[in-house]
Amino acid sequence: MTRTAAVAALVLLASCGVAADPRSTQVEIGQDTFYVLIEQDRATVSNFATGFDNTLRLRVGARAAMESQTDCTISDFFKFDDVNKYQARLICPPNR
After folding, report:
1. Where are the alpha helices (DSSP H) in 1-96?
2. Does any domain span residue 59?
3. CB atoms within 10 A of CB 8
4. If phi over 0 gives left and psi between -120 and 50 gives alpha, with beta otherwise, what is residue 2?
5. Does Signal count among this protein's keywords (predicted)?
6. CA 65 – CA 63 distance, rounded (Å)
7. Number of Cβ atoms within 10 Å of the Cβ of 38
8. Dihedral sign computed on CA atoms, order 45, 49, 55, 58
9. With pLDDT > 90 as the criterion, what percentage of the chain qualifies?
10. Is the distance from CB of 58 to CB of 65 less than 8 angstroms?
11. How far apart are CA 63 and CA 69, in angstroms?
12. pTM, entire model
């Protein structure tokens, strides 16, 4: 198998089973698509972009996607290891 075929097979295999939670809201930030899921006091954002040079852009976009879906303050924002998945705690006004 050539190197190109091996890489293509890996990409295809890795993409199998990758899907956004059906309860999430799709949000476009710049050139990226994020999937935001709000559950109680947590916001989780997923993005399925590939590449090594987009880490900062995706981190900023994930936070902006969260902020666009809630009137709460974003706290304890972090990225899961090895995937484009981010989570934060939401501090919401008492009347929410």
Report:
1. 3-15, 55-68
2. yes
3. 12
4. beta
5. yes
6. 5
7. 17
8. negative
9. 62
10. no
11. 10
12. 0.76
**Domain span including residue 86:** 25-91
Domain presence at residue 48: yes
Structure tokens at 65: 């996607």
Q: How many folded domains does the chain comprise?
A: 1
| Residue 5 lies inside a defined structural domain of this protein | no
Report CA 20 to chain centroid distance, whole Å: 9
Q: Which two tokens stand for residue 63?
A: 């936070």
For 6-40, the pLDDT digits (tens) are: 444 334 334 444 578 899 999 999 999 999 999 99
Q: Return the half-sphere exposure (C-beta side, CA atoms, 13 A cut-off) of residue 2.
A: 3
Tokens 């290891």, residue? 81
- State the Cα–Cα distance between residues 44 and 35, nearest whole angstrom: 8
Angle at 83 between CA 35 and CA 47, to 5 degrees: 20
